[in-house]
């Protein structure tokens, strides 16, 4: 369907860690098994803090969510299972392949991937991409995008939930 190919994109500025966490929570509360969130962007952009917010939305304690640097994948049990993957340290594609990452996309649980641009191959079209960009010391721009029907449904609902609580940034303003 042509409609599902059109990308929906929504961007916000957050001026504190707390606001980034809150934004993650607004996404997290909506998620169900099979949803995939691909986080990309600057080093220190706030991916892990954002994931803590997603966790809160899934009724998982945010303190449980730490950068899975040594384990690569952390698993949390909440309203749904959360698989938190971080591909930062992996530059070698064969190493990534050996992790059988595809298994996490089977639809059992929610998958959040930090440094998702290092994922070998294509992520499913349902994936929601979140790009986190450092604007200044305390300000981050988070841009959400997706083109699949499910992704669009989530992003439209996100927009309604956030309302005027955060400043929305039109795409053209960032170019
Ligand atoms: N508005 C903000 N939102 C999120 N983090 C912020 C914000 N302002 C400042 N920060 C700081 O930026 C850093 C973000 O760290 P975090 O670990 O979440 O980033 P990351 O993108 O996961 O990093 P990495 O690329 O190493 O995985 C923290 O030190 C946090 O205190
Ligand atoms: Mg991180």
Give the structure's gist in a few sentences.
This protein is of the alpha/beta class and 175 residues long. It is 29% helix and 28% strand.
Any overview of this molecule?
This protein is α/β, with parallel strands linked by helices. The protein has a single domain (10-169), classed as 3-Layer(aba) Sandwich (Rossmann fold). 29% of the residues lie in helices and 28% in strands. The protein has 6 helices and 8 strands; from the N terminus they run αβαβαββαβββαβα. The chain has helices at 2-5, 17-28, 47-57, 93-97, 149-162, 171-174; strands at residues 8-14, 36-41, 73-77, 81-86, 110-114, 128-136, 139-146, 167-169. It has an 8-stranded mixed β-sheet with strand order 3-4-5-2-6-7-1-8. Strand 4 (81-86), helix 4 and strand 5 (110-114) form a beta-alpha-beta unit. Helix 2 (17-28) packs across helix 3. The chain is globular and about 45 Å long. The relative contact order is 0.25. The model has no long low-confidence stretch (mean pLDDT 90).
């Amino acid at each position: 369907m042509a409609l599902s190919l059109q990308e929906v994109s929504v961007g916000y500025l957050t001026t504190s860690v707390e606001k980034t966490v809150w934004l993650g929570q607004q996404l997290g509360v909506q998620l169900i098994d099979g949803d995939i969130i691909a986080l990309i962007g600057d080093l220190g952009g706030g991916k892990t803090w954002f994931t803590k917010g997603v966790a809160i939305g899934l009724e998982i304690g945010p303190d449980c969510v730490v950068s899975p640097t040594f384990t690569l994948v952390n698993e949390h049990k909440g309203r749904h299972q959360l698989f938190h993957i971080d591909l930062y340290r992996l530059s070698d594609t064969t190493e990534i392949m050996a992790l059988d990452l595809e298994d996490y996309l089977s639809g059992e649980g929610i998958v959040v991937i930090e440094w998702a641009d290092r994922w070998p191959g294509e992520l499913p079209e349902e994936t929601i991409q979140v790009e986190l960009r450092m604007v200044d010391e305390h300000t981050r721009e988070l841009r959400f995008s997706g083109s699949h029907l499910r992704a669009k449904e989530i992003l439209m609902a996100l927009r309604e939930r956030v309302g005027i609580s955060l400043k929305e940034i039109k795409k053209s303003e960032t170019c």
